[in-house]
Amino acid sequence: MNGWLAAAAALMTLGLAPVLWCVATGPLRRRVAAQNTGTLLVCLVLLLLARGYDRPPYTDLALVVALLGPVGTLVYARLLGPEMGDDPPQSPLTAAFALTATAAVLLPLCVAEGPGRSLAKLLVIGALLAGGNIISAKALAGARPKEPDDHG
Length: 152
Description:
Blueprint: H1 3-24, H2 28-53, H3 57-79, H4 81-84, H5 93-113, H6 117-141
Helix pairs in contact: 1-2, 2-3, 2-5, 2-6, 3-6, 5-6
């Protein structure tokens, strides 16, 4: 087992357990935020596995997850916005965690990769992860409260 695989195992073990707990319990806003954090962690684990096993197609899969993960969160925020209106606001620490985790994983990967097309792909994935998590956090913070029913 090399260092990349050990980092992937540690991230999966230490990161996904709290995410699964938050997805299964608590208010709806926290569940949706945890789902978004889970897609971030899965993407980072795929990048580490791609380097650890020397399998570049895993990077392509991470690119798809980085693109679709925040989109799913935005769909949840739009469709479940009225139900999330009464939930406590989301902590700003989730966006900070997303940016920190992305930088902590992508910087060593970029250094190990060296210049080339793979480095450009890693930078695009990093930008998608960072931007997607910031946009998702803003969308979850602005969830609409329930509107009063005029038909009663």
